[in-house]
Design brief:
seven-stranded antiparallel beta sheet; alpha+beta; 1 helix
């Protein structure tokens, strides 16, 4: 026996009509998410920053856009050679610098004849664009406290960094985050 195929009749939708209240709640949730992404995420998770000045050349240049991870240093400590964003005069002052970490908490830093010594041993310095004409406060050994970092710009001739007596070592509480990605220009997209 042949079975006959019949066209199935579409079933009526069984869902209820949405009310104005449900649309309003959905709208409020979307607005809250947008505001969260605009204000909270850059303050606490990831922030975009733009390089100003020449202190990190030849690695970072004026006008390049970077993404700064603001979370990882809450769970781990910065490492030697990390590029960081920090507030040189505290978080109350709306000014920040981008530099590279050389000295870690508890270490002794000294600069002799353009070489960097950590705890008396010369370390690799492949990021420097040029020689340092001034060792600043690091001409004599600088003992870092348990919450301090010694930072240098890659362009040593123009960089205002931990060698300067007014700036000196950077406290961990003033580190905003770790630079993990260059997003502009697109031709240089990637890790700095």
């Amino acid at each position: 026996m042949k079975e006959e195929m019949t066209d199935s009749i579409p079933q009526e939708k069984t869902g209820k009509k949405r009310t104005k209240v449900s649309y309003t709640i959905e709208f409020v949730i979307y607005i809250a998410l947008i505001l969260l992404c605009i204000f909270w995420v850059p303050e606490h998770i990831v922030q975009r920053t733009v390089v100003k000045g020449e202190s990190m050349e030849n690695n970072l240049h004026e006008g390049e856009s970077l993404l700064v991870d603001k979370v990882s240093y809450k769970f781990s400590s910065p490492s030697r050679y990390d590029i960081i964003v920090f507030y040189p005069y505290g978080k109350d002052v709306d000014e920040y610098y981008v530099k590279r970490i050389y000295g870690l908490p508890g270490e002794t830093v000294q600069i002799k004849d353009n070489d960097i010594y950590i705890n008396g041993e010369k370390i690799e310095d492949s990021y420097a664009k040029n020689a340092m004409d001034d060792a600043g406060i690091a001409e004599e050994p600088v003992k870092l406290a348990e919450d301090e970092y010694f930072v240098l710009g890659d362009n040593r001739m123009v960089s205002l960094d931990s060698r300067d007596p007014d700036l000196g070592p950077i406290k961990k509480e003033n580190i905003a985050g770790h630079v993990f990605l260059r997003i502009w220009p697109l031709s240089k997209f990637g890790t700095p």
